[in-house]
Design goal:
This protein is α/β, with parallel strands linked by helices. It contains nine helices and seven strands, in the order H-H-E-H-E-H-E-H-H-H-E-H-E-H-E-E. It has a seven-stranded mixed β-sheet with strand order 3-2-1-4-5-7-6, sandwiched between helices. A hairpin with a 2-residue loop joins strand 6 and strand 7. Helix 8 packs parallel to helix 9. The chain is globular, with a radius of gyration of 32 Å. It starts with a helix and ends in an 18-residue tail after the last strand. About 10% of the residues have low confidence. InterPro entries: IRX15/GXM/AGM. It is found in: Golgi apparatus membrane. It is a single-pass membrane protein. Pfam families: IRX15_IRX15L_GXM. One of its GO terms (biological process) is xylan biosynthetic process.
Length: about 260
Amino acid sequence: MWPKKLIFVFLLVLSSLSVVRLFKFLWTSSIPAIPERLPPRASEKPRHGVDRPREDVLSPKEHQLVSNVIARRIPCNLLIFGYKPQFLGLATLNSQGTTVFLEDDPEKLRSGRSKGLRMYPFSNHEKARRAYELLQHARRRPACGPGAGTLRAPRCELALRGLPEALYESGWDVMVIDGPSGDGPEAPGRMGAIYTAAVMARGGRSTDVLVHNTDRTIEKWYSWEFLCHENLASSKGKLWHFRIEGNSSSDRFCETAASPTQ
């Protein structure tokens, strides 16, 4: 009798162990594996500083157009609105002339000056969202005409303020407009830079003016309004090249207004 009971108990224990193993297998296989390193939460900040947005640089063909224009004028007076590392080559190309950068980003100012570049801050830019309002203001106000005096004692809201006096006295051969960023409604827009460059160009000799990011509405509007379609000499990608004849006595920027905002 006892041997039969022992066999029964033994079989019962084996069955229990099999059930436990089966349950354990099913439990562990249903749990996903934990990665060795969890991804950061969306709210967590990067450990090594804040990522800066990728800079919108000139394409190789756009950069070649700028270089070609400068090469035809060297040694020349070159004024660049906005500093980018790829512009170092332009300053080197014009090493026998004068190259000046205007920049609103303090970090870029420090970087450029550390490389021995001649750089000045320019600020007080209107936000990009005011572009249409300021364009209408300029059309209504005679003080926003092309006369050079509008920059030294500006009564036009578009005129850049606080620039060194030497910038007004220099006759600029080439001007490149690639700053401030103008990459959003609350960002500083390029309205003042394009307007100021247009007034400077008409106050001196023949000037080549290049505007980058003309695929954007503000750059396109203001280029047509103040640099003018009839002065467009060439283009490449998002870069427009205007040639402005100076010493004009006209009280208008363009012979024919071409802005679509009329």
